[in-house]
Design a protein that fits this description.
Blueprint (H helix, E strand, L loop, with lengths): L1 H31 L13 H16 L2 E2 L6 E10 L4 E5 L2 E3 L5 E3 L6 E6 L1 E2 L4 E4 L4 E6 L14 E6 L9 E6 L2 E15 L4 E11 L15 H20 L4 E8 L7 H8 L8 E7 L9 E4 L5 H14 L5 E4 L8 H5 L4 E6 L21 H15 L3
Length: about 375
């Protein structure tokens, strides 16, 4: 009887301990997707605020600056922003940005009224204003790094079902030739081999805001990955390992992997000292498992990950995938740094839209992802 009670206690204790990871994740998710950070992008100082928050979190956990000086690795790049008016009226009806329409990220600003000519079944023009309106079934936004000499508006055909013929538009853009950004870089010093590193990375930037009233929360992409990275940073700060464990929150991923490219061109530690890099992006679901990019490039390490997963009965499946330039692992891989990028599968499909919100993101496999990474890192360190 005593043995059974002790076993039940251990089960409860382990479950409660694991549950703490997802509790942390949800709290961090709520924070990073709040309006205070305004989509962690290019207006209302959203990205800067988010970077400062991550640096302060690193510091509070006791992490050290990777270069010994500062958590911030500064760089810059061009970006087209929309900080001001974002107004569209079609056929006398005022539409809501984000829900009813979005602006093409490379668009020029425009203030005008006029009549539209139909080009085809989904495209309408006003040549004098160089305005294009195109109907779409789903609105997904991105980041523009240049400005075209026209304005394109993508219209949600599911919310505006009329044929557009007249318009009033007031859209303000601001092109920033040298937008200032920073990668946030910290580490926990290794106890036996401090010059050997494991890297855990996640991009913290998202799309920011479109006008003064609409922002893109970016819960799954990639507040979820940042939350997982920060929970791992908290854990490793309390449990130093034989190797040094570095944590990099990249900026500029949505603009074309800009931050990770800059890091690999200006590394804060020798790239040859990185035993392995794990990049997490889209970590908010997982009911159908995960996909691991570069699995085919590193079959031994992929086998280790599957071995851990099967032994601990964590995720339902780990799918292998080859090389792909789809997140911040890519430029490390190009510099011959062994790297995996994993993303979760199943659940909600909100992506690059206003519906990627914390309250609808389940973090269904957050605890299991945490355990998988810790145990896989143990394998990498020969533990």
């Amino acid at each position: 009887m005593i043995k059974r009670l002790f076993f039940l206690y251990l089960c409860f204790h382990c479950t409660a301990a694991n549950a703490q990871h997802v509790v942390y994740g949800k709290k961090m998710l709520d924070t990073l997707t709040s309006s205070h950070f305004w989509g962690r992008g290019y207006t209302q100082n959203g990205m800067e605020k988010a970077g400062l928050f991550i640096a302060e979190t690193f510091s509070s956990y006791g992490l050290l600056a990777l270069d010994g000086k500062s958590f911030f690795q500064k760089f810059s790049y061009p970006v087209n922003t929309f900080p001001g008016k974002m107004e569209l009226t079609l056929n006398g009806k005022k539409l809501k940005p984000g829900a009813d329409f979005i602006i093409l990220p490379e668009s020029n600003g425009l203030t005008s009224s006029g009549v539209l000519q139909q080009k085809d079944s989904i495209t309408y023009l006003n040549e004098n204003d160089r305005l294009v309106i195109k109907e779409e079934n789903k609105l997904t936004w991105s980041v523009g790094t240049k400005v075209e000499d026209y304005t394109m508006i993508l219209l949600n055909r599911n919310s505006f079902k009329e044929q557009p013929h007249s318009y009033t538009v007031k859209i303000e853009n601001k092109f920033v030739d040298q937008f200032s950004a920073s990668n946030i870089c910290g580490y926990v010093r290794g106890t036996l081999q401090p010059d050997s590193f494991l890297f855990i990375t996640a991009h913290f930037d998202h799309l920011g805001g479109m006008g003064k009233e609409t922002f893109f929360p970016g819960a799954n992409d990639n507040a979820s990955g940042v939350a997982l990275m920060l929970e791992l940073a908290r854990y490793y700060a309390l449990h130093p390992q034989p190797y040094s464990i570095a944590f990099i929150a990249f900026a500029g991923e949505e603009a074309g992997l800009v931050g990770s490219k800059y890091f690999t061109e200006n590394p804060l530690v020798p790239l040859s000292s990185i035993r392995f890099l794990l990049n997490t992006d889209l970590a908010g679901t997982g009911t159908e498992g995960i996909t691991v990019v570069n699995a085919t490039e590193f079959p031994k390490e992929f086998a280790w990950m599957n071995e851990v997963n099967e032994k601990e009965k964590l995720l339902v499946k780990i799918n292998p995938r080859g090389k792909a330039a789809n997140s911040d692992h890519y430029f490390f891989m190009e510099k011959e740094v062994p790297s995996f990028f994993f993303y979760t599968l199943g659940g909600i499909t909100a992506y690059h839209d206003i519906n990627d919100r914390a309250e609808t993101l389940p973090l269904s496999e957050f605890d299991d992802l945490f355990r998988l990474i810790v145990l896989f890192n143990n394998k990498l360190m020969g533990k």
